[in-house]
Amino acid sequence: MAFAEGDFVKVRESEETGFSKKISGRRGVVSNVGSKDTAPFPYLVQFEGGGSLCFSAEELESDSDSTNSPSHYTSHPSGIECIEIVKHMNFPIGSAIKYLWRCDLKHSDGGIEDLKKARQYIEIEIARREALKVNS
Prior knowledge:
Helices cover 33% and strands 17% of the residues. By secondary structure, it is an alpha+beta fold. It has two domains: 8-62, SH3 Domains (SH3 type barrels), CATH 2.30.30.40; 71-135. Helix 3 (91-102) packs antiparallel against helix 4. The longest helix has 24 residues, at 112-135.
């Protein structure tokens, strides 16, 4: 399996890798992918809690979990994860963007449920701004 920068990975737990128990199972993020010149260990992994090591593809496995990086927020063609955008917005706007972002990815209803949720958050923000305008 090939990995890209930003991929969540875990060091394989296997006798074949020869890693001690301290390294096997450790989780991290691929922070750099080397060229063929860095073979056989092209993947630099930054570990949770600090430290980094280089690995081959055979020594790693994907660790994209549904809690930290669910596919309906990470599969945008831009490669940008939804949270990187919405963390700079207020809650109603960020929530509307989140539902628009995933509307074609999560449910089998053609995105209708998520579009309705996005509309609900947009209406909340409109009401908030209208109230601010009246009170100012």
